[in-house]
Amino acid sequence: MSEQKVSDADVRYAAMRRVTLVGATVNVVVSVAQIAGGVFAQSQALIADGLHTLSDLISDAVVLFAAKHGSQDADEDHPYGHRRIETLGSVFVGLALLGVALGIGYSAGERLLHPATLSNPEPLALAFAALAIVAKESLYHYTVYVARRVRSNLLRANAWHHRSDVFSSLVVFAGIGGALLGFRYLDAVAALVVAVMIVRIGWQLATSGVRELVDTALDPEDVAKLRQAILDTDGVSGLHMLRTRRMGGEALADVHILVNSRISVSEGHRISEAVEQRLLSEFEEMKDVIVHIDPEDDEREAACATLPQRSELLARLREQWADIPIARRLENVGLHYLNGHVHIELFVPLREAPELEEAKTFARELKAACKRVPEVGEVTVYFRCGGA
């Protein structure tokens, strides 16, 4: 099992590393082409967009770092794994998008206030702007595809960073086209519109990452589906304290389930395993499930935490059984902690079948002795004939 998990982590990191390196390579080539084309075609907007593309290498470096360390398996210091490193990376990329948007908006505002600073590019600049749009849009679709395949919010964030580059390149294209047609102000207006769009994307990425870092629950619709799947599991009669959260592109849940109070420990454990297996198999994002077994709804019933445990209770019961000879032959004592009391089941082996009235007398004596312990609730006595 552990070898499989290591293999999955390696495959995931390799995919993230590959797509990020491809993105970095494309960004370098496009930025060099934009800057060179801007100088040659006398387009200040194209040069600025080239420098913006070159700055994307910072986010690519963040993605590589987070992908490498976030894909590591759990260890002693990080028992839940390292996926939150990816979450931090997505927050950083979201903040970077906000910075890009503010930069575009500020530049556009300056040009609107000072029309003399608007450029007069050559027609060749349109070709370089179109090349950048095609390259960045292709990079966006490629990154989104890999992000969905490996379930990485960090890659999704970087994909939207690539899409923001497309927007900025569209602004440049529109600005150059408008300048060539004589409408020089269109560049600045389009830039402001795109800046607002990028602010929205960056804000969503940053806030979703922060929500994950503070353990925000899954969407209500997803929680409702989880709740129904648990209730549909055989042996589960109720649930409470269903808590969910995200870590990277994965979901985690823990829940208290209500089972029959008289079943064995092993059967209750088997029901909890069935709940865990069902959620992991039916919900693709679900990575880990912790199930707590409750014999009663501890949110409504009286608490049992203050009741004595087995060793203390048996010591007190034996004091009460001291004068009852048949109590020395007890085979087993079953304890059920329910509704603020300890309910007891006594199993007594007998060498031969007693008369009905004699058995009733034994039972009354044992029950009366047990009832002298204040915490004891119901007492049931079982006789097994043929015992040693």
Automatic annotation (TrEMBL):
PANTHER family in the record: MITOCHONDRIAL METAL TRANSPORTER 1-RELATED
Record domain Cation efflux protein transmembrane: where: 21-214
Entry keyword set: Ion transport, Iron, Iron transport, Membrane, Transmembrane, Transmembrane helix, Transport, Zinc, Zinc transport
Topology versus the membrane: Multi-pass membrane protein
Family assignment from sequence similarity: Belongs to the cation diffusion facilitator (CDF) transporter (TC 2.A.4) family. FieF subfamily.
Domain Cation efflux protein cytoplasmic: 218-296
UniProt-recorded Gene Ontology molecular function terms: monoatomic cation transmembrane transporter activity
Gene3D superfamilies per the UniProt record, alphabetical: Cation efflux protein transmembrane domain, Cation efflux protein, cytoplasmic domain
A cellular component term, taken from the record's GO annotations: membrane
Listed GO biological process terms: iron ion transport; zinc ion transport
Membrane-spanning ranges: 21-40, 46-67, 88-109, 124-145, 166-183
Record carries keyword Ion transport: yes
Signal peptide: none
Protein's cellular compartments: Membrane
One Pfam family, short name: ZT_dimer
Name listed for the protein in its UniProt record: Cation-efflux pump
SUPFAM superfamilies tied to this protein: Cation efflux protein cytoplasmic domain-like, Cation efflux protein transmembrane domain-like
InterPro entries the UniProt entry points to: Cation_efflux, Cation_efflux_CTD, Cation_efflux_CTD_sf, Cation_efflux_TM, Cation_efflux_TMD_sf, CDF_Transporter
